[in-house]
Amino acid sequence: QVPRAPSQPLAGSESRRFSNKHSKKALKASLTLGILLGMFFVAWLPFFVTNVAQAVCGCVPAGFFDVLTWLGYCNSTMNPIIYPLFMRDFKRAMGKFLPCCRRSGEPRPSAISLSMRNSNSGPRAATSLKNVL
């Protein structure tokens, strides 16, 4: 077999594999977005329709209006449930910081490691943990 030069276009199977992987990600992202928007409409649309009806005719009982308001508020509780179900990166991030979601044997990151990871520059000799302690 002759190695392929970098300037040559991708082979057919490699191109198909890349496009298949990309299309799976796009499909999963659109599915997640569709579910989030669907839940939003199911939760808030009855509230907004009733709100307009209340403004026009004033015929909506206060208790019913309160129930629809709380249905809309429940949408906010659905998002932390929907995101981990469909997004692996979100699930990993939650697992790092919430003890209930952490895998056994996985240590919780310390504040020092978080600050070093989030800083733009790497550890410097004068500010390394060894020199501080």
From TrEMBL:
GO terms for cellular component: plasma membrane. Keywords: Cell membrane, G-protein coupled receptor, Membrane, Receptor, Transducer, Transmembrane, Transmembrane helix. SUPFAM superfamilies: Family A G protein-coupled receptor-like. GO terms for molecular function: G protein-coupled receptor activity. The keyword Transmembrane helix applies. PROSITE patterns: G_PROTEIN_RECEP_F1_2 (PS50262). It is found in: Cell membrane. Residues 1-83 form the G-protein coupled receptors family 1 profile domain. PANTHER family: ADRENERGIC RECEPTOR-RELATED G-PROTEIN COUPLED RECEPTOR (PTHR24248), DOPAMINE RECEPTOR 2 (PTHR24248:SF185). This is 5HT6R protein. It comes from Dicrurus megarhynchus. The gene is Htr6_0.
